[in-house]
Write a structure and sequence with these properties.
28% helix; Tumour Suppressor Smad4; 3-stranded mixed sheet; 2 domains; two-stranded antiparallel ribbon; alpha+beta
Length: 118
């Protein structure tokens, strides 16, 4: 009688552990699929200026109109300080050896990004 009670307790214990695993797995999947929560900004009064719109001055040092980027600069990581000129051809980023900028990150794909002029 005592051994039957122990076997039944072990069965119920394993069943409880199995259900806990299933519940935690579903909670994790639900959290991953729903994405991250975005915090909303408090709805406060907006301050607007009644002044005329600003126009870029000649002394600002920036050219008027839309200008395109001329170079890509890596600012962090193992390749920090690397500069690549952006010319007329595409620039590829990835782990592949034939990429313009070879990444050493395990989570980056072999053809992670392709920058095309446009």
């Amino acid at each position: 009688m005592g051994s039957a009670l122990v076997v039944a307790a072990v069965k119920f214990g394993l069943l409880a552990v199995l259900w806990l695993f299933v519940i935690f797995a579903f909670r994790t999947l639900r959290g991953d699929l729903s994405g991250s929560k975005v915090a909303r900004m408090p709805a406060g009064p907006r301050v607007t200026s009644a002044a005329a719109p600003r126009t870029p001055s000649a002394s600002s040092g920036r050219p008027s109109g839309r200008s395109s980027a001329r170079r890509l600069v890596v600012t962090e990581g193992a390749l920090a300080g690397t500069t690549i000129g952006l010319g007329d051809g595409p620039v590829t980023l990835g782990r592949a050896d034939d990429s313009t900028l070879v990444l050493t990150d395990d989570y980056a794909s072999s053809r992670h990004a392709r920058l095309v002029p446009g």
